[in-house]
Amino acid sequence: MQNLQRGSTEFTLRHQLDALPCTDLITAQAVTSDRLGELAALARREIPGVRASEAELAEFLRHDPDSIFVLCRGRALLGGIAFLYLNCAGLDALLLDDFNLNDPPRRYLARPGEEVAAIYVWALVAQGRGAIGLGNVARTLRGPRYHAADYYAQPSSPEGRAFLGALGFAPVASFQPDLWWYQRPWNRLPDVIAPSIQSTTNCEKGSLADARH
């Protein structure tokens, strides 16, 4: 599954991602094996360029069972979101455009249970009111494993760019084309300081995080 975004026309409120409210209307939980085929079909239908198969998603989940969430209303599947949880080396490689995001090397991914250096939004699809379930996903990703990690994404359409902007993302200077960045509120420095883009994780100080085109 490629790193593409798709939003819902109903989801237009301009909130920061970490301030999205939770809801009881939509459930957001790690995908189970019985729904992988349905989710893969939805992604292929709704996201331009995606060719993910059930087998490919299953292989991805074997590395980290918490990397793909489904958005449901009752049993009805309304969408899903997949993440790459990067370690420090993976964050550097992302900014340098130094690995294939369609087939990310395992050495750049955080091990299950390991603290995450960056959260890359690999794919997002949401139909109708499914997008309001993102608040529930965001709550999970405020947990200790993910707390220090900023989000990164690449939109696939003008609508995707608008959707990312509504969530508080902004383009970031990097060698990776059209990379957008969402800095967690607790990682932000006071406005009186104007630093270059930098890593906000527990990576080594020498870790590259301000690459430019």
TrEMBL record:
<feature type="transmembrane region" description="Helical">
    <location>
        <begin position="116"/>
        <end position="137"/>
    </location>
</feature>
<keyword id="KW-0472">Membrane</keyword>
<feature type="transmembrane region" description="Helical">
    <location>
        <begin position="76"/>
        <end position="96"/>
    </location>
</feature>
<protein>
    <recommendedName>
        <fullName>N-acetyltransferase domain-containing protein</fullName>
    </recommendedName>
</protein>
<keyword id="KW-1133">Transmembrane helix</keyword>
<keyword id="KW-0812">Transmembrane</keyword>
